[in-house]
Amino acid sequence: MRAASPLRLIRKYLSIIATILLFVLAFVAASLKYKGFGTLQVFFNMLIDNSFIIISAVGVTFVIISGNIDLSMGAMIAFTSMLAAALTENLHVNPLLTIAIVIAVGALIGTALGAIITFFKVPPFIATLAGMFMARGLCFLISIEAISINDPFFRAVSLYRIHLFGKAFISINVVIMLVVVLAAIYLAHFTRFGRTVYAIGGNEQSAMLMGLPVNRTKVLVYTLNGICSAVAGITYAFYMLSGYGLNANGFELDIISSVVIGGTPLSGGSGYLVGTVFGVLIQGIIQNVIAFNGTLNSWWTRIIVGLLTLMFIVMQRAFSAIKRKGSTSTFEMKSE
Amino acid sequence: MKKLNSIIQKLGSNRLAWSMFALAAILLFNLIVYPEFFKITILDGHLYGSLVDIFRNGAPLMVLAIGMTLVVATGGVDLSVGPVIAVTGAVATSLIGLEYGSTNTPLFLAVALALGVAALCGFWNGILVSRIGIQPIVATLILYVAGRGVAQMITNGKIMRIFYEPYFVFGSGYFLSLPVSLYIVLLVYIVAWLFTRRTSFGLYVESIGINSEASRFTGINEKNVKLLAYTLCGLCAGIAGIIISSNVKSADGNNAGLWYELDAILSVALGGTSLSGGRFSFAGSIIGALIIQSLTTTIYSTGVPPQVIMLVKALVVFLVSLLQSENFRKMIGSLLNSRKGAIQ
After folding, report:
1. Is residue A301 part of a domain?
2. CATH number of the domain where residue A269 is located
3. Whole-complex ipTM
4. B58-83 as b/e: b if 16+ CB within 10 A
5. Fewer CB atoms inside 10 Å of the end CB: C or N, chain A?
6. Per-residue pLDDT, A175
7. Among A139, A57, A117, A71, which Cα is nearest to B262's?
8. Mutate to test the interface with A, among B80, B319, B321, B328 (most CBs of A within 10 A)
């Protein structure tokens, strides 16, 4: 073991530094260009409008670190928020019980997908693509129409504002999101489960040979992802105060590109949750700039997000190529 | 008894037979429940009826499935076919223009350019996969995100309508009392079959799908074969895009080709091509597309909300991918064996 020199540290955190730097630069540039952009509230609004995306992206980050992929989370968010709406409105279930049921259902679906992928070796994108269609179908099975939520508890949570630093405020969703992110960071870096996830993503074969519980962990990662989708669905229900089968359309791609922009390579094995949070926030800046500008059209969001994703993937590949070159002479463990 | 067993075994190993069987089962269900399903009437010299509808509405999916088969056989996947459909429709529409009964660009040129753009989209995917080495799901995801944005940029965010009659031929025209789109499918199939089975290209594709590394060592130019497969897949998506926009007489950047990617992948899987790559069959994929289309038509006629079809499709995907899974077959096999043992 060599002592961690500053250079090594920078190299280790290079992708995440790049992401945060890009966020700061974009925010400063937008603040200089648009009057009223550089305020605390605009930043808080990005958190408020994207809290459910971040929560779901946390689960997907684990999936991607373990070297797999998930395409079902957008549909899962729609389904779980629809389920929450149907339980409280149509069946008049207690809101807290509703939340518990929804999270349990999310965990169950996640576990089932994980088991199909792990034990039957069905390619992850096929299984989760089918999961996506299943969740959308279930939405419409509950109701074709949108269900609006009038439950007093949901409304109270939805409208509550927490004031910070004077006039600026955040919503309860932001608090939920922060709790999820902190819990996930603990899980990723301070538990055996987290280390196993990184090990599987690094090299599944070696993880197996080291005696790590590979199969169990792979299923658990999808369980965790299902729980995250369900929590995201509940916060989405707080945000929208309704459930609808066509809601959250295209979220899966926003989420995956956030994880990629956040510096987690799609080949797995490394990556940080903080990066994912900033990956989502960079997309938040793009949306806000387009809203502030007023003359740009919304489709530019898609094109720019697509190009940013590409840029980051190419960058990651370049880095890993350099790293491989550097480590051919001396055998060294993967530094992340 | 032994003979019967071996026949069943032979049938079981022939994946094409399974998909034929599934298609027959759906049609049989319709024959029993809705006898009028099979009624074909001739109106103005054109054939009409549910069966003709299945072929006509399924045409874009069949073309798409042919292109997707090539990509899946190389061990990849193309998620961007839906947006490519939207882009192609948008390009063709904007070239033809919005004037009633006239066109800004000769029809042939407009279609050729639109198809060229579609092939370019496929080429872009192919470059990302073969040259930069990005995993296929992610490489094509980029175009999936950006593609609809590009389509909306071309149509200026609006649904553009077409008023130029001759363009409608591809989607809703008839020739010798059969829909023109069917002839297009036939043409694409024949060209694809000749190109893969009468040259070595098909063999290369299968070899790469089974073992990319080993194929490279035997001297196959793995990168170029993949590049060509993705380009052809883009071209097929383009042809489907022309049929769709010609059929609905408009270009819609948001909704043209929406959800088509799963249908295309599902068609390929139902047709017996393994999703992990290797051997492929265009005929199987076409049958797969027909299964999906007849499933859709059946669900429409049962009066179940059409959106629920997504659930049915998902269950079919699970079933098919489990049946393709070796572990699952082993598990079922051992379950059956243990029961046999118990009886004896």
Report:
1. yes
2. 1.10.3470
3. 0.78
4. bbbbbbbbbbbbbbbbbbbbbbbbbb
5. N
6. 93
7. A71
8. B321
